[in-house]
Amino acid sequence: MKRERSTRQIMRGSSMYRGTAALDPGPEPKARAPKPKAKHRSRRGQALIAVVIALTLVGLAAGAWFGRHAISHGLGSLELGRARVTVSGNEYLSPDEVRKASGLDERVSFFRVDLDKARERLLQNRRISEARLSRRLNGEVRLDIDERVPTALALYGKPVEVAADGTVLPALVSGVTPDLPVVTGLAAPQKNKIADADWPRAVRWLHRLDDPALALAGRVSEIDVSNATLTTVVLAPHGARLLLPAEAREADGLGGVRVVLADLQARGIEAATIDCRARGLVVVEPVPGSSATDGKNQKPGASVTASLPHATQTVPENSAPSGTERRRG
Predict the structure, then answer these.
(1) pTM for the full model?
(2) Domain spanning 179-307: which CATH class is it, in words?
């Protein structure tokens, strides 16, 4: 029995020993040292990468250029990619005249049309002051222009249109001449432009007489600037002459001319001259025999003097009804 126990104890002990040996992980393996990283790429490798990138960019640019021209030539040969040339901003010139001035047909190649060259040709036309050309995604080439608008007519054998900056405008293809005041007393133009110093003076008077308060719209027929101290304006329809100061800024109380003209019309008198050079005073010389009633006690050629009401004058309550203007005459 003792022998069996000792054998069992020995077997148990050995099994316990084996179990302990299996659970023991043993010594830890040594960690591997990390491989050292390359600090910098070689200069030769960097140069090679730069060359590859440059060649790639050059190849892409060349491919895009050849592709664009190949497409444009291909579409042009097939009559595709044709754009309509439209015109905007024109008032006096017709769309056909604008296209002709630009050198473009009614339909052009959308890709091959030279817009810069067309713009230069447009600006050579004296009637065009500015031009903007563009391509539209809807297959359209737009010509947007600014025209020189004629301000008046000048007589050089025949009436010619003149812009505000003094540019003599060429005649329209239609041959139509606008109904504008005629400026006389100017020197001949030089290189299609009026260099006379009296032209700006006439333009200033045109703007002054265009004031709605004067009610002279459409009645100014001629402006004579031949006299350095006097500006003469001829009014339609009977040819009454307004004698005005040389400069528009010197005309005080010019609004009273409307009162005088209305009074003369009401009395049936036609004025030969209306002198507005004096401040606040208008001297009217009527046409002899223009009124049967007022001409009985008036000598032929006599003048009528009228003082003009001040612009800020107030009318008393017991005076004439509103709408009538008072003056002494």
Answers:
(1) 0.61
(2) alpha beta
Name the token pair of 213. 């308060």
- Please tell me the number of Cα atoms within 13 Å of 116 on its side-chain side: 0
The alpha carbon torsion through 90, 94, 99, 100 (nearest 10 deg) reads: -130
Chain segment 267-320, per-residue pLDDT in tens:
888 889 998 888 778 888 888 876 644 444 455 444 555 444 433 333 333 333
What CATH homologous superfamily does 77-147 map to?
A: membrane protein fhac (3.10.20.310)
Specify the 3-state DSSP secondary structure of 18: helix
Kindly write down the DSSP assignment for every residue of 1-13, as one continuous string.
-HHHHHHHHHHHH
Nearest to 185 by CA among 144, 133, 225, 142: 225
> Residue 234's closest CA among 221, 243, 247?
221
SS3 221: strand
* Token pair of 155 as six digits: 């007589």
Q: CA-to-CA distance for 308 and 124, rounded, in angstroms?
A: 50
Q: Using alpha carbons, select from 61, 74, 146 the residue that is nearest to residue 110.
A: 74
Backbone angles phi, psi at 239, to 5 degrees: 80, 25
Angle at 259 between CA 253 and CA 261, to 5 degrees: 110
**Do 83 and 108 form a contact (C-beta atoms < 8 A)?**
yes
Torsion of CA 99, 100, 105, 111, to 10 degrees: -60
Cβ atoms 178, 160 nearer than 8 A: no
Tokens 């002899």: give the residue: 288
Q: Domain spans of the chain?
A: 77-147, 179-307
Query: Looking at the DSSP assignment, which residues form a beta bridge with residue 131?
Result: 145
